[in-house]
Amino acid sequence: MSPRKSPNLNNFFSGAKQSQQLSEAEQEISYLKAEIEKLRASGSQELESQLSELRKQLASKAGVLDVALEEIQPNKEQPRQTFLAESIEAMAHSLATYGQLEPIILIREDAPSVRGENLIIFDGERRWRSAKKLGWQSIKAVLMEQPEDLHKKALLTSLHREDLNPLDKAEAIVRELSFQTELNASEIPRTVATAVRRLNKYKQMNRVVELLTVNTQEQSSGLSELNLDENEKLLLSLLLNLQLNPASVDANIFTMLSLAPDLKEAIRNLGLKGVHALALNKLSAKNLKISERKAKSVRVEKTKQVTLKKLSAAETRKLVNEVLEKYAGSEAKSHRELKTIVRAKVNLQHLSDEVLASADASQLKALEEVLRQKLAAIETVLKIDTPHE
Fold first, then answer.
1. CA distance 97 to 114
2. Considering 46, 102, 125, 315, which one is annotated as catalytic?
3. Residue 379 is among the residues annotated as catalytic for this protein
4. Fewer Cβ close by (within 10 Å): the C or N end of the chain?
5. CB 245, CB 209: distance < 8 Å
6. Which ranges of 108-256 would DSSP assign to H, the alpha helix?
7. Which stretches of the chain are assigned E, i.e. beta strand?
8. For the range 361-370, what are the long-range contacts, defined as Cβ-Cβ under 8 Å and sequence gap of 24 or more?
9. Residues paired with residue 105 on neighbouring β-strands, in sequence order
C-alpha cells in the first residue's frame, strides 16, 4: 500500500500575484478551495493560513463587500450547532473594540431567494452572530460560488477543528453518512459498532487504521479482505475517506448520541465537555435505582457543580462514583430494613396459640403494648402514603 501524498502548496502560493488574469485567478480560487477541503480532512495546522489566503484571492477577484446581515443565512449543513453565549460575547467585544479584522466567506447559492441572492455562510458564523448581537446592519464579506457536495464540504470545514464539540461532530457525521448511504440515522452507529467489535475480536482493527494513509482504491481493496457486510464496508469506507478512525468514532464520538437529553443541552448551553458528559451519564435511573425524574434532578445538580467549579475529568468521575456509592448505600440500607420487617412478620406468625397459652400474663401484656405502639405507627404511615380522595 503506497502512502497518500499530502498537497504541496508552497509553489502555488509563491506564484500568486495580483496581476493574474481573471481566468487564472478563478482557476487558483477553485484549486485553493479544493486544497482547503483536503487540509480540513487531514487536520493540517496550515488550515487557518489557507483560509486567509482564500479570502485574499476572493477579495482580489470581486472585492470585499458590505452585506446586509438580514440577507445572510447560516448553513444548515454546518456541523457546528453549538455557539456558547460566552463565545459570542467575547467575539462581540472584539468586534466592538477592534472592528471586523477579516471578512467572512459567503457562498452564492445557485437558487435565488425572494430577496435576491441566497448568501450562505461558509466560514465566519460566529462573527455574523456577534455582529447581529451588536445591532450591526451589515458585515464585510467575500463571495464564492457554491461548491459541489456542499453538505460534505461543510462537514470537512469544521470536522477536524479541535473546538468542535463531540456532540455536534457525532450528529454531523451521522447526517453525512445517512446522506451518502440512505441508511436510517439510528442504524449507522449500531452498524459501525458491530463492525468494530467484530474486527477487534479477530484482531483486524489495526489493518483498518493502516488504510487511513492510502488512497481510495487501496482502501476499498483493503476493506474487501475483511469479514464485513456491504453496509459495514460502505460506512467504514466513508469514515476513512473523512480521515476518521472508525474505532475512535465508535468509542469517543457516537457515544455522544446516547447521552441523556439534559446532558446534551448542557454541552450546547453550558459548554460541558464530552468526557465530563459521559461520566455524568452514569447517573441514570437504572444505576441509581430511582425514578427517571429524580435521576435527571441529580444529573442537573451535579452538572452545574462540574461546570461552575470547572472540575477536571478525573474530578468529575470521582464525584460520579461518590454519588453512585451514596445511592448504593441507601439501597442496601433500605433492603436491610425491608428484611427486618419481613422477619418480624414471620416471627409473629410463628407465635402459635400454644406458645401464647404457655406465656404468663406480664409477658403477654408487654407484647400487647409493643404491638399496639407499632400498629399506631403503621396506621400513621399508611395515612401519609394514601392520597386523599
1. 35
2. 125
3. no
4. C
5. yes
6. 125-134, 150-159, 166-181, 187-201, 205-210, 216-224, 230-241, 246-248
7. 65-68, 72-73, 104-108, 119-123, 138-145
8. none
9. 123, 142
